[in-house]
Amino acid sequence: MNDFEARAKEAVADELRSIRAHILQVNIGRKCNLSCNHCHVEAAPERDEMMPREVMEAVIRTAPVLACEMVDITGGAPELHPDIRWFIEKLKRLGKAVQLRT
After folding, report:
1. Tens digits of per-residue pLDDT, 8-49?
2. How far apart are CA 57 and CA 59, in angstroms?
């Protein structure tokens, strides 16, 4: 047991674990109309990586299981994804708050 584990064990009687995820963050692509130096995903106009619809469907199936309150959609520029409206509509039908970060 390392020092962190020993101190954590002193602080809590049980294992440290998350009770639930409040926000599910989903990065749906790297395409963006800009090419900013500070972009952590290196999004740019020439990038073409986009989350396939099958993976979006898996997110839609997973969000209720996680009991998350919000789905935070990011990318590059997620509004450029061809299925973005469909994705948001499906998540909203599940009662999820949706945040679109561009």
Report:
1. 777 775 666 667 789 999 999 999 999 999 998 899 999 999
2. 5
